């Protein structure tokens, strides 16, 4: 299922904002607004505060 | 006016505290005695409560007590439990059945404890619960006690209904409480084989499977596989993110562990408190923060270039 693949991607690279964004979009499509908003906040905070990779530039795996 | 039910069986050491706490609620107390030989029944009678000896299974005994009640609203407590707050709410009840909060060792569980006579009935001879579950939360807090050992009753139930998925679920829970992990794994897997739907018991079973796989069997891969299932269905539960952080911490990848512990804190803030799932209080702040500090100190000392 699509959702499991999104989580597998997140496990592979939790530093990539795209992986969080995919989860936000998935929960939005499912009508799970509370969950989608929570991931949305996470995406926003990663963009603002961190040296996390922007959506279009993947950071390579570190280990 | 409401009626409170108690099922007792040799609970002398803990019954007094419960009866004291019930005296703060204006209620009639009906006691079902499942065969006490230590004087518990006499203590209940000394408090002026009616005691009914019974040898029925727990669900039937509770239904019988509800049948004897003369009030609309019913409430039940277990011996040793103490109602700690929300006393005033007992007398303004209306609408659906109510889930009260049970606090035990830093863990909050929610159970239907208040219901209108006739709206629901107890099912299951052990770990009996009220059905149908059409309930809403109420701010009544009860200080709980450790679950008694019902293993013999569960094995008897298993003999009577060997194919019932629920029996394997409760057996798994009981073996987990008894720290008999091989038997826990067997029954948890039986249960998940029989019930494939994503619901409270399957999600929580997978969470406990993950914990045992991680901390006892040291099988990080299997633990992670179960946690993905839990997170897919309940992504705001901090407990699941913390367990994922633990997997990566144990696998020696502290920088990823930090990310998952951060998600535990940030996503956990949005978790609704009124869902039926249990809450491990420490996992929402104290534990993930402690683990983030630990992981960062490892990164600084072991892999300064990664920190």
Q: What is the topology?
A:
The complex is a heterodimer of chains A (63) and B (307).
Chain A lengths: L1 H11 L4 H13 L3 H17 L14
Chain B lengths: L1 E7 L3 H11 L4 E7 L6 H7 L3 E4 L4 H11 L4 E5 L4 E4 L11 E8 L2 E10 L4 E3 L5 E3 L3 E9 L7 H10 L4 H13 L3 H14 L5 H16 L4 H14 L4 H13 L3 H15 L10 E2 L5 H17 L5
Parallel strand pairs in B: 1-2, 1-4, 2-3, 6-10
Antiparallel strand pairs in B: 4-7, 5-10, 6-7, 7-11, 8-9
Helix pairs in contact in B: 4-5, 5-6, 6-7, 7-8, 7-9, 8-9, 9-10, 9-11, 10-11
Describe what this molecule looks like in 3D.
The complex is a heterodimer of chains A (63) and B (307). In chain A, helix 1 packs antiparallel against helix 2. Chain A has 63 residues and is mainly α. Chain A has three helices and no strands. The longest helix of chain A has 17 residues, at 33-49. Chain A has one domain (2-49). Chain B is an alpha/beta fold. Chain B folds into two domains: 2-143, Alpha-Beta Complex (Spore Coat Polysaccharide Biosynthesis Protein SpsA, Chain A), CATH 3.90.550; 151-302, Alpha Horseshoe (Serine Threonine Protein Phosphatase 5, Tetratricopeptide repeat). Helix content of chain B is 46%, strand content 20%. Chain B has eleven helices and eleven strands. Chain B has helices at 12-22, 40-46, 58-68, 151-160, 165-177, 181-194, 200-215, 220-233, 238-250, 254-268, 286-302; strands spanning 2-8, 27-33, 50-53, 73-77, 82-85, 97-104, 107-116, 121-123, 129-131, 135-143, 279-280. In chain B, the strands form two sheets. In chain B, strands 1, 2, 3, 4, 5, 6, 7, 10 and 11 form a nine-stranded mixed beta sheet that branches. In chain B, strands 8-9 form a two-stranded antiparallel ribbon. In chain B, strand 6 and strand 7 (107-116) form a beta hairpin. Chain B is globular, with a radius of gyration of 22 Å. The N and C termini of chain B lie far apart (62 Å). The A-B interface holds A 1, 3-4, 7-8, 11, 14-15, 23, 27, 34-35, 37-39, 41-42, 45, 62-63 and B 224, 228-229, 231-232, 235-236, 244, 253, 255-256, 259-260, 263, 266-267, 269-270, 272, 306.
């Amino acid at each position: 299922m699509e959702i499991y693949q999104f989580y597998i991607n997140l496990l592979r690279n939790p530093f990539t904002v795209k992986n969080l964004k995919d989860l936000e979009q998935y929960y939005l499509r499912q009508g799970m607004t509370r969950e989608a908003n929570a991931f949305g906040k996470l995406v926003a905070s990663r963009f603002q505060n961190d040296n996390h990779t922007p959506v279009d530039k993947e950071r390579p795996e570190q280990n | 006016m409401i009626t409170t039910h108690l099922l007792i069986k040799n609970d002398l050491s803990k019954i007094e505290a419960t009866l004291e706490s019930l005296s703060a609620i204006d209620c009639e107390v009906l006691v079902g005695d499942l065969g006490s030989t230590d004087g518990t029944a006499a203590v209940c009678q000394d408090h002026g409560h009616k005691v009914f000896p019974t040898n029925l299974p727990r669900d039937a005994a509770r239904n019988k007590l509800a049948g004897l009640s003369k009030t609309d609203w019913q409430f039940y407590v277990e011996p040793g439990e103490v109602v700690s707050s929300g006393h005033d709410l007992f007398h303004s009840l209306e609408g659906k059945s109510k889930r009260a909060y049970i606090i035990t060792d830093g863990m909050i569980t929610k159970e239907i404890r208040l219901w209108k006579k006739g709206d629901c009935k107890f099912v299951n001879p052990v770990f009996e619960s009220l059905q149908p579950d059409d309930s809403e939360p109420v701010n009544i807090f009860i200080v709980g006690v450790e679950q008694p050992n019902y293993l013999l009753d569960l094995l008897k139930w298993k003999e009577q209904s060997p194919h019932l998925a629920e029996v394997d679920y409760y057996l798994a829970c009981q073996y987990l409480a008894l720290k008999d992990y091989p038997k826990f794994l067997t029954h948890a897997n039986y249960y998940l084989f029989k019930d494939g739907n994503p619901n409270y018991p399957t999600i929580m079973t997978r969470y406990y499977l993950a914990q045992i796989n991680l901390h006892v069997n040291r099988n990080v891969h299997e633990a992670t596989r179960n946690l993905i299932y839990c997170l897919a269905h309940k992504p705001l539960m901090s407990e699941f993110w913390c367990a994922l952080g633990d997997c990566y911490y144990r696998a020696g990848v502290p920088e990823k562990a930090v990310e998952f512990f951060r998600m535990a804190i940030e996503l956990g803030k949005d978790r609704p408190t009124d869902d039926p799932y249990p809450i491990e209080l420490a996992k929402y702040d104290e534990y993930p923060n402690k683990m983030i500090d630990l992981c960062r100190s490892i990164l600084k000392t072991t892999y300064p270039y990664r920190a």
